Amino acid sequence: MRMISYCITYNAHSLNFGVQIINHGIDPEFMDKVDEVGKQFFGLPVEEKKKYARENGGYEGYSNHIIDSKDQAFDWIDRLYLVTKPEDKRQLKLWPENPQSFREILHEYTAKIEKLNEMLLKAIARALTLEENCFLDMYGEDASMLSIFNLYPPCPRPDLAIGLKPHADASVFTYLMQDKEVEGLQFQKDDPWYKVPVIPGAFVINVGDQIEIMSNGIFKSPIHRVVKNTEKGRMSLVMFCFPNPNKEIEPVKGLVTETRPRLYKTMKDYTSIVVENYQKGRRPIEAAKI
Ligand SMILES: O=C(O)CCC(=O)C(=O)O
Ligand SMILES: [Fe+2]
After folding, report:
1. What keyword terms does UniProt attach to this protein (predicted)?
2. Which stretch of DSSP H or E encloses residue 37?
């Protein structure tokens, strides 16, 4: 696995972790297939896509971005949300059967990302000279994965919409497959925004809030957004890895020292505090700080 570009910066105390990796072990031809089934699904007639529509009160399935409040900025996006792990939580009726290979490919992709995530959790522990499994054990065996296919259609009125508004991810890590041609993702460092270049075959990996907590703030979850494009559509696929909601997470012992006191509370079901904070434009990580 090779990291090729830091989207943000490193200093002696923390790493704003948004990186792109190549040589990650997932075959570029397979990534192309994943990209293709996503694009084929979004290309179907609306009536066909609506067979998999999000149900009232749920968040899985096909939808435009959820707009719960009038003063919320309008996100210019079409989405397909699917929980892929644990397998017994899959709502298969919301998994497209068209294109035909969709389900099989998403299943296979989930297994590959799961492996990559394990590898990364061990790698960051080794990099911090900690016991290799300290993050993985806290992440747990019965973890969940949520996949979101995002389609940002070309936007004729950029003055009225944004692509995806600024946020940090609530996950442990997020594995993001960008569109192969169209840029749009940007990260914020201090005030300015930095574009993430398109690198064929690479994954963008974001530290999510839950690694910020587990690493006692050594890794910071970066703020990012997607800007709209007036001419070209863009598709991305994000895989969020979360611990099981019943599992407690907290800063790992080896990272709490006299010189670096504990900065975050013990948290359970972190994602449940995310939605209310997101809608109000607040960062949920603030609620985890001591
Ligand atoms: O589309 C992208 O590049 C990013 C999407 C994203 O940040 C998200 O879904 O959380
Ligand atoms: Fe995100």
Report:
1. Dioxygenase, Oxidoreductase
2. helix 28-42
Task: Report pLDDT digits (tens) over 219-235.
Answer: 999 999 998 888 888 99
CA quadruple 127, 132, 134, 140: dihedral sign:
positive
| Mutation choice for ligand 1 from 185, 206, 227, CB with most ligand atoms inside 8 A | 185
CATH placement of domain 2-288: 2.60.120.330
Separation between Cα atoms, residue 135 and residue 123, nearest integer Å? 10
Coil vs helix vs strand at 117:
helix
Cis peptide before 86 (omega within 30 of 0): yes
Report how far Cα 44 is from the mean position of its chain's Cα atoms. 25
The mean pLDDT value of the chain amounts to 86
Separation of CA 258 and ligand 2 centre (Å): 33
For 36-46, the pLDDT digits (tens) are 999 999 999 98
3-state helix, strand, coil split of the chain in percent (to 5) is 30, 25, 45
Residue pair 133/198 in contact (Cβ under 8 Å)? The answer is no
Distance CA 78, CA 56 (A): 17
Distance 257 CA to ligand 2 centre (A): 31
The reported pTM is 0.90
- Give residue for tokens 């809608």: 279
Q: Measured between alpha carbons, how far is 220 from 243 in angstroms, rounded to an integer?
A: 18
Angle 204-209-215 from CA coordinates, rounded to 5°: 95
Using the CB atoms, write b or e for 174-193: b if 16+ within 10 Å.
bbbbbbeebbbbbbbeeeee
Domain borders along the chain are: 2-288
Closest ligand 1 atom to 184 CA: 3
Q: Are 139 and 118 in contact (CB under 8 A)?
A: no
ipTM value greater than 0.95: yes
